[in-house]
Design the sequence.
């Protein structure tokens, strides 16, 4: 037997409680001849003996259980206030493992809402537009800009073009509806245009669903009562309500002799509240001497899917819905078509958020 | 699970757990301190134990974790280092006395990590089988055998080093190559 094999046998024996190989005669002969291996075997024997001796004999007395319990409970009471919130949370989560999944989904949804960008359009301002104005001479841009500056709109921009039908004027970069109305008054006064339109400037922006919801939460309808006739005010309000989605709004404005303006308006619009198409009706009465304003909720939910289902199979309707959703930047949505007992088709759109752990 | 239930589960294994802590720590005082520390943590975390039948291995794992944490702390390392002063114990040729044997093992086990020490204590003192250790540490039996062998080999090499020094010392002072009991001197 050589040293390598002897050491291997000693090592093998170390892994077994009975140490069988230590008593091998061949190993004993080698140990007699090799001082280094003999020393290793001696060390192993000392350790064996020490383990045996340490495990035998009387044990030290065990602490009485009642004494231990009293001691620990005293310390526990003292340390009770030191339990950290994290440990309590760990206990709650370990007892309810589904909470982990729920928390994961909540975090995923939160991140989706706040971080994943989508394209959508918002109203960033207004423009006053007069088209096909019949004039002998075009009003200069400098004059229009000067007029807007006088009114306090220093950032207003003016664009002039000429067509076969007449001159076209466009004053843009107006911050709100009131500015649009004032710009329209300027255009009407200087150009003599009979019909000046105020149109919102829509811009496509990229932002999270949360940002979109914040942007679109409410729409403020502003009513400027100063300087306008009843018909003009009615037309302004009706135009703003139309822009907010209300079809054929009814607006009635009365200005009394003592300067009090009374406004009553009503309208209805189609909305998609997430459960399908519906109607929203508003009826508002206002009374005052100054400019007034009121809020209407913005159109909420998923963009409406305008699909004509007549003569189409469910598969065709589904394909058309998926295509329209994809065109609006919504991918991964599950579209299901159901036929209700009354024969109407219901389109159900579901969007799932996958949890990644 | 309330506190009363915790104590009910602990009572049957109290002696075994306390003894394990003492052997793991190397002496009674440090062992009792480790045991109390582990029980305080166990009471806080008992809510995480779903299966009461697993209380025994759960508590022992917690004790090993607390021991491992202690061995990482500076004050413990300093204290463990003091056992180096007991190195003369390794020169006891035939440690039949229990206290001498423990001193020797305590010194030799300073070369082991906390987990290896726990494994060796469970095997040698608590008489756990390889199968039980494999289940407890969640490792194959072959891995447990290899780790036990490695741990003992480390202790053996540690002892060999001291035997060599001692032999040289004796050779110089007495011209004798043998190691005689009661003739040892501290290194």
Sequence:
């Amino acid at each position: 037997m050589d040293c390598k094999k002897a050491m291997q046998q000693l090592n093998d024996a170390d892994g077994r409680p009975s140490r069988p190989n230590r008593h091998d005669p061949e190993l004993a002969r080698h140990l007699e001849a090799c001082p280094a291996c003999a020393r290793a075997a001696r060390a192993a024997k000392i350790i064996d003996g020490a383990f045996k001796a340490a495990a035998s004999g009387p044990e030290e007395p065990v602490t009485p259980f009642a004494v231990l319990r009293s001691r620990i409970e005293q310390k526990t009471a003292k340390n009770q206030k030191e339990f950290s919130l994290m440990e309590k949370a760990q206990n709650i989560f370990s007892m309810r493992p589904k909470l982990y999944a729920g928390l994961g989904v909540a975090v995923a949804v939160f991140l989706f809402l706040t971080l994943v960008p989508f394209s959508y359009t918002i109203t960033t301002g207004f423009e006053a537009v007069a088209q096909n104005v019949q004039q002998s001479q075009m009003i200069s841009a400098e004059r229009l800009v000067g007029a807007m500056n006088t009114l306090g709109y220093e950032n207003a921009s003016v664009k002039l073009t000429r067509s076969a039908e007449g001159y076209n004027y466009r004053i843009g970069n107006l911050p709100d509806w009131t500015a649009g109305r004032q710009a329209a008054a300027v255009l009407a006064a200087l150009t003599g245009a009979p019909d000046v339109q105020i149109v919102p400037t829509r811009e496509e922006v990229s932002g999270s669903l949360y940002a979109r919801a914040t942007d679109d939460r409410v729409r403020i309808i502003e009513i400027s009562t100063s300087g306008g006739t009843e018909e003009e005010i009615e037309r302004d309000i009706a135009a703003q309500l139309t822009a907010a989605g209300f079809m054929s709004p009814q607006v009635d404005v009365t200005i009394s002799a003592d300067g009090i303006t009374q406004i009553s308006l009503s309208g209805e619009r189609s909305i998609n509240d997430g459960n399908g198409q519906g109607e929203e009706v508003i009826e508002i009465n206002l009374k005052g001497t100054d400019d007034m304003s009121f809020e209407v909720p913005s159109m909420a939910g998923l963009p409406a899917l305008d699909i004509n289902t007549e003569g189409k199979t469910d598969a065709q309707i589904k394909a058309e819905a998926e295509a329209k959703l994809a065109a609006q930047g919504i991918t991964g949505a599950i579209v299901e078509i159901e036929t209700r007992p009354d024969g109407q088709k219901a389109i159900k759109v579901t969007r799932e958020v996958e949890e990644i752990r | 699970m309330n506190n009363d239930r915790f104590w009910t589960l602990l009572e049957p294994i109290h002696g075994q757990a306390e003894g394990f802590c003492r052997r793991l720590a190397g002496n009674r005082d440090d062992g009792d301190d480790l045991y109390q520390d582990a029980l305080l943590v166990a009471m806080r975390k008992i809510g995480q134990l779903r299966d009461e039948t697993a209380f025994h291995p759960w508590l022992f794992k917690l004790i090993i974790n607390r021991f491992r944490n202690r061995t990482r702390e500076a004050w413990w390392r300093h204290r463990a280092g003091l056992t180096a002063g007991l190195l003369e114990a390794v020169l006891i040729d035939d440690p039949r006395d229990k206290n001498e044997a423990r001193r020797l093992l305590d010194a030799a086990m300073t070369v082991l990590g906390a987990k290896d020490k726990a494994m060796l204590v469970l095997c040698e003192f608590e008489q756990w089988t390889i199968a039980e250790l494999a289940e407890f540490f969640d490792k194959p039996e072959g891995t447990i055998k290899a780790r036990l062998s490695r741990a003992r080999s480390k202790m053996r090499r540690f002892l060999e080093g001291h035997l060599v020094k001692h032999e040289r010392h004796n050779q110089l002072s007495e011209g004798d190559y043998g190691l005689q009991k009661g003739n040892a001197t501290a290194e």
User: Anything to note?
Assistant: Residues 81-87, 175-187 of chain B have pLDDT under 50 and may be disordered. The domain at 1-72 of chain B is CATH 1.10.1740 (Rna Polymerase Sigma Factor; Chain: A).
